[in-house]
Specification:
The protein starts with 6 loop residues before the first helix and ends in a 5-residue tail after the last helix. 21% of the residues are buried. It is built from eight helices and no strands. It is mostly helical and 128 residues long. It is globular. Helix 2 crosses helix 4, helix 2 packs across helix 7 and helix 7 runs antiparallel to helix 8.
């Protein structure tokens, strides 16, 4: 991909990533299918939203906002304080997939993002 063809830009940049994050947390916060995932988050989701937005920005080829503020993501290490089991992983993916379908994108990109997100979520598992 050239710089102009990053997933970040194809999706619509900052506005699209903000929308994706908002929809993800809306689903996590409201759907009974995500209640265990919601329970491991703080009552106020502002900080989580901000960090996910900054991470996704860089991960998708946009500005490396997370790295600029926090350093290397070290995602698995940062998630050690939380019980991330198969159920939490599956609920996270469920909410993210729902949010991804609300963002206009080419089918091939959606397929690739879904697989990458599933792989990333599986890597976060740290409990049975």
């Amino acid at each position: 991909m050239t710089e102009q063809q990053t997933p970040y830009l194809i999706l619509g940049g900052e506005k699209a990533i903000t929308s994706l994050v908002e929809r993800f947390y809306f689903y996590m916060d409201t759907l009974p299918e995500a209640k265990e995932l919601r329970a491991i988050h703080a009552t106020d989701l502002s900080a989580a939203k901000d960090k996910l937005f900054k991470f996704l920005s860089g991960w998708l080829g946009g500005p490396d906002l997370f790295i600029q503020e926090y350093g290397h993501p070290r995602l698995r290490q940062r998630h050690f304080p939380f019980k991330v089991n198969q159920q939490a992983r599956d609920q996270w993916i469920f909410c993210m997939h729902k949010a991804l379908y609300e963002i206009a994108m080419p089918d091939e990109l959606r397929k690739n993002l879904k697989q990458a997100i599933e792989d990333l979520a599986t890597h976060m598992i740290n409990a049975e």
